[in-house]
């Protein structure tokens, strides 16, 4: 039931969005909002079902039984990701109403149609129980995200093109991997394949397929060192696209990583020949440090946030690859936190981009605190959470991840988490220092007057930032559930 | 224990938090704004006072509120040690509030609303540190304390202040992370982070490899040692003197640095337990570091001409008296430590108050400029002399008794070298404080002193009061708030009967 409604709503937005120019934004927001509410309902139902001992909700399309037909599966993991993706997307689209910037004036319906298509692809990727079908949805979301990214500065099409090339290569590698697996197992259904893999896990063809899939998804998830497309794309695109794609795009790729590696292959299948989970964990660790260091060196706020994404994705993938419930819960909680934090931060950057025409960090000075008091307060909250200081939510996902590294006896990775927190502090406090303390040459601070964006933009960003505080204090019910999602 | 009294620790934390929006909203009406601060300070002190009778009976009030991380409750509990620390911090906040008004207005400082709001936040987190019932809650407040003092350190917004604040953050954030790592390691071993008088029984009974135990101890000791100013982790403290003087007096002589030594007490007495530490030999490490610090800091204090920096190095030294006392792990040693937390607080706050009064009134911050200043500011220098005498360890001021108890502790533990260093450092205290006093009283003043009088009453009354407190607590250690009895109860808990907090 739920499954069907997601897809029909998404399609509806696409169609209606094209037809009525004015109604595009409200409709898209409404669609995402309804989907978010449905996701919440789905989460509650799944939770109740699990407690009552019922299995996950499965829906076979066209009435065909799963091994032959394609099915959608709503279990705890997919319900959680749906909630995060749709929830954040709804707030971002709401926020975008006040922010139709110069790049979008001409064609909002096209933009929102693409955005809805993008969300549709993501929802499909999360829900599907079929590896090939996943590829189809992957391409839907990817193609629409290439187009979304191309709307932006003069370099945006180039960045989008680069993303297109790399993304297509990644997608193709994944597809070849799926092909290998189909040849080996004779099925594309995840649950079916899960049962067969233990029997053939040591076959070379399975290993090749696994590697191809890891690299393929790794590109989409920006697993170090496959992040190359990400910084330019997020920097050059328009501010709505970056606020929409950055928080949730890579998260869904991380979801696919979890689904394929931990659920389909499972710990034993993944590490049957080579200790691949450790390789991924250390690559992720390298990505965390690399992303943080690169972020410190950036002079453009959006590029800094993009590199910070590379680093934060590392936390999530590391938590997944550590293969224990603590780290897994930490990773999933970080999916939620990082989606909210990045959305907030990109919203803040969109406020500045709108009012100042530039997001060059070197231009920041203490006139900003007078001009944008709310925006800067929002930024501060999100920054503290990014650094990982209590009582913000970011602290608790890092705490769980740290416990996970200890559990797995990976001391180096524990060191990575701690070091990266400090590096985060360096670049975020660098900005806070500029915004609150750095004297502007022309006494701008005293002369500047409030120049805030509309409440329609301030409010969504502020709500997300306060949500981080809320999730910081009341994370235990969620974390308890997330720990149980770890596949035994 | 009724529900009401169980909520007192929480209320004591929240009071100043609630004051923040009120302070922010009344930013255009300074008098109203400052009255919020006063109101919060008085209520907070009252709440802490109401906990004293229970604490004297060795009771613990409060409890877990909700789980803040899986398996780890957010726990606010007022045990005797917590009440003791909260009492000092909240009591002295009242004096500092009055003093701040005199200082900030007298000095024409900008952004006073931010100042008072951040100050209230810092006090909230200090009380949170005091009442934290487990290490995790402690860390939460410890980090909030770091963040909320940042705007205070950077208050002047000069380049020097920005540099100092950076240094401050670098040290304290690193320390916080190491503390988190230590807590994580411990939690994975024992499954609990509760504070337990005498040490965690889960840790004492466990068979953790001594290497791992050392790692945990070092991580935690650095974590709390940075704020406690143990060398070589101290250098943020002299830099942080860039902050306005009320901040230096309450936060960097009492609240922040004492939450560091308080952390040392919590980690060694309530997590590891003295028995385990002595078995590990960790007490020797603590003793060497603290004895080294208190000697070297005294030497460095000599070299400072800037009055506040000299006081800062003196603080570094005196904090290590406290750490040294803990490292002795004998009854008198730890008792001396606890008493010195209170004694150093009243004396050092007096000295900083005086330094600030001199700065506002005479615009002087160097010791070499103070010739003859006592004639102009008699009250201030009388108070300064009392504070200096106390820190040197001259009876009947409270500093004498805490030092005496510390000395007894070294004898009890048979540690002669620390005893020698204690005496040496006492002499050096005299050496770096009395020239200031002598200069102010006996050297003829320059022409620039003419036309200046005593500082305004908002500053003089607090500084005289804290000086009086030092004397009163020296003569009657149980006056008003039963400091000695409280400390005795703490010792009973630490050394005799364990029991969950």
Write up this protein.
The complex is a heterodimer of chains A (488) and B (501). Chain A has helices at 2-19, 24-52, 76-96, 108-127, 131-150, 156-185, 190-200, 204-221, 230-236, 239-270, 276-297, 301-321, 325-356, 367-371, 373-387, 393-407, 411-437, 444-447, 455-473, 476-484; strands at residues 57-60, 71-74. The mean pLDDT of chain A is 83. Chain A has a domain at 280-488. The two termini of chain A are 28 Å apart. Chain A is mostly helical and 488 residues long. Chain B is mainly alpha-helical and 501 residues long. Chain B has helices spanning 3-25, 30-56, 80-106, 112-131, 135-153, 159-190, 201-204, 210-225, 236-239, 245-272, 274-280, 282-303, 307-328, 331-362, 373-376, 378-392, 398-413, 416-442, 457-475, 483-495, and strands spanning 61-69, 72-78. The A-B interface holds A 329, 384, 387, 389-391, 395-396, 399-400, 402-403, 406-407, 414, 418, 421-422, 425, 429, 433, 437, 439, 473-476, 479-480, 483 and B 66-70, 74, 139-140, 143-144, 146-147, 154, 157, 162, 166, 169, 173-174, 176-178, 180-181, 184-185, 187-188.
């Amino acid at each position: 039931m739920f499954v069907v409604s997601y897809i029909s709503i998404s399609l509806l937005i696409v169609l209606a969005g094209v037809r009525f120019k004015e109604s595009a934004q409200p409709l898209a927001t409404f669609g995402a909002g309804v989907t978010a509410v449905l996701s919440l309902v789905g989460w509650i139902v799944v939770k109740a079902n699990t407690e009552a001992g019922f299995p996950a909700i499965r829906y076979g399309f066209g009435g065909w039984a799963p091994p032959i037909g394609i099915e959608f599966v709503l279990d705890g993991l997919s319900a959680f990701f749906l909630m995060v993706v749709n929830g954040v997307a709804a707030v971002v689209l709401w926020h975008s109403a006040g922010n139709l910037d110069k790049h979008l004036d001409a064609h909002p319906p096209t933009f929102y149609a693409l955005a809805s298509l993008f969300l549709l692809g993501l929802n499909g990727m999360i829900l599907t129980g079929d590896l090939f079908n996943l590829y189809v949805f992957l391409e839907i979301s990817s193609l629409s995200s290439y187009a979304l990214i191309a709307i932006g500065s003069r370099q945006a099409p180039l960045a989008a093109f680069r993303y297109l090339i790399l993304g297509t290569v990644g997608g193709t590698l994944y597809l070849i991997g799926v092909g290998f697996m189909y040849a080996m197992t004779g099925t594309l259904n995840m649950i079916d394949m899960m049962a067969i893999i233990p029997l053939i896990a040591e076959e070379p063809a399975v290993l090749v397929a696994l590697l191809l899939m890891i690299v393929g998804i790794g590109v989409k998830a920006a697993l170090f060192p496959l992040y190359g497309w990400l910084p330019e794309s997020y920097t050059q695109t328009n501010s709505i696209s970056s606020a929409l794609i950055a928080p949730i795009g890579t998260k869904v790729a991380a979801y696919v990583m979890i689904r394929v590696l931990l659920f389909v292959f499972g710990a034993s299948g993944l590490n049957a020949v080579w200790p691949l989970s450790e390789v991924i964990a250390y690559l992720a660790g390298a990505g965390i440090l690399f992303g943080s260091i690169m972020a410190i060196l950036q002079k453009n706020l959006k590029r800094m946030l993009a590199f910070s994404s590379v680093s934060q994705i590392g936390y999530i993938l590391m938590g997944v690859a550590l293969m224990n419930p603590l780290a897994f819960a930490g990773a999933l909680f970080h999916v939620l936190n990082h989606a909210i934090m990045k959305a907030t931060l990109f919203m803040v950057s969109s406020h500045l981009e709108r009012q100042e025409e530039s997001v060059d960090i070197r231009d920041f000075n203490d006139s900003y605190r007078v001009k944008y008091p709310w925006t800067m307060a929002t930024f501060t909250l999100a920054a503290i959470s990014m650094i990982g200081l209590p009582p913000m939510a970011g602290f608790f996902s890092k705490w769980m991840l740290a416990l996970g590294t200890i559990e797995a006896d990976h001391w180096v990775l524990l060191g990575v988490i701690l070091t990266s927190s400090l590096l985060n502090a360096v670049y975020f406090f660098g900005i806070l220092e500029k915004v609150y303390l750095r004297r502007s040459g022309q006494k701008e601070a005293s002369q500047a007057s409030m120049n805030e964006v509309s409440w329609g933009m301030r409010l969504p960003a502020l709500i997300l930032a306060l949500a981080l505080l809320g999730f910081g204090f009341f994370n235990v019910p969620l974390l308890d559930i997330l720990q149980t999602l770890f596949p035994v | 224990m009724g529900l009401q009294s169980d909520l007192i620790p929480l209320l004591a934390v929240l009071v100043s938090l609630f004051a923040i929006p009120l302070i922010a909203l009344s930013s255009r009406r300074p008098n109203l704004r400052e009255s919020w601060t006063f109101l919060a300070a008085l209520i907070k002190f009252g709440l802490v006072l109401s906990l004293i009778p229970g604490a004297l009976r060795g009771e613990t009030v409060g409890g877990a509120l909700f789980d803040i991380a899986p398996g780890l409750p957010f726990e606010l509990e007022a045990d005797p040690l917590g009440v003791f620390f909260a009492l000092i911090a909240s009591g002295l906040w009242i004096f500092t509030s009055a003093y701040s008004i005199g200082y900030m207005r007298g000095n024409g400082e900008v952004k006073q609303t931010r100042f008072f709001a951040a100050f209230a936040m810092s006090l909230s987190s200090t009380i949170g540190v005091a009442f934290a019932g487990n290490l995790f809650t402690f860390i939460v407040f410890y980090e909030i304390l770091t963040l909320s003092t940042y705007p205070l350190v950077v208050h002047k917004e000069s380049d020097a202040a920005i540099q100092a604040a950076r240094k401050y953050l670098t040290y304290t954030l690193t320390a916080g992370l190491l503390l988190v790592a230590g807590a994580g390691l411990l939690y994975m071993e024992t499954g609990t982070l509760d504070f337990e008088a005498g040490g965690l029984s889960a840790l004492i009974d466990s068979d953790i490899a001594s290497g791992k135990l050392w790692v945990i101890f070092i991580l935690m000791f650095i974590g709390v040692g940075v704020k406690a100013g143990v060398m070589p982790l101290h250098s943020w403290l002299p830099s942080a003197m860039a902050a306005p003087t009320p901040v230096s007096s309450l936060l960097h002589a009492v609240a922040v640095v004492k939450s560091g030594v308080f952390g040392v007490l919590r980690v060694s007495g309530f997590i590891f337990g003295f028995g385990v530490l002595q078995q590990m030999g960790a007490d020797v490490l603590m003793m060497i570091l603290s004895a080294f610090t208190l000697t070297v800091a005294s030497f460095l204090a000599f070299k400072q001409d800037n009055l506040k920096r000299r006081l800062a190095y003196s603080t570094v030294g005196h904090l290590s008296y406290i750490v040294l006392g803990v490292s002795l792990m004998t009854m008198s040693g730890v008792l001396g430590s606890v008493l010195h937390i209170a004694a150093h607080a009243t004396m050092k706050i007096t000295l900083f108050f005086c330094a600030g009064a001199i700065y506002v009134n005479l615009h002087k911050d160097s010791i070499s400029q103070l010739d003859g200043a006592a004639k102009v500011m008699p009250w201030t220098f009388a108070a300064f002399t009392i504070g200096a005498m106390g820190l040197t360890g001259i009876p009947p001021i409270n500093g004498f008794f805490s030092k005496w108890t510390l000395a007894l502790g070294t004898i009890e533990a048979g540690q002669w070298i620390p005893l020698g260093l204690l005496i040496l450092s006492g002499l050096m205290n005299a050496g770096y404080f009395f020239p200031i006093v002598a200069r102010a009283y006996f050297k003829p003043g320059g022409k620039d002193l003419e036309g200046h009088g005593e500082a305004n009453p908002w500053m003089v009354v607090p500084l005289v009061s804290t000086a009086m407190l030092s004397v009163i607590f020296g003569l009657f250690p149980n006056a008003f708030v039963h400091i000695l009895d409280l400390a005795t109860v703490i010792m009973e808990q630490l050394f005799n009967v364990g029991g969950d907090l």
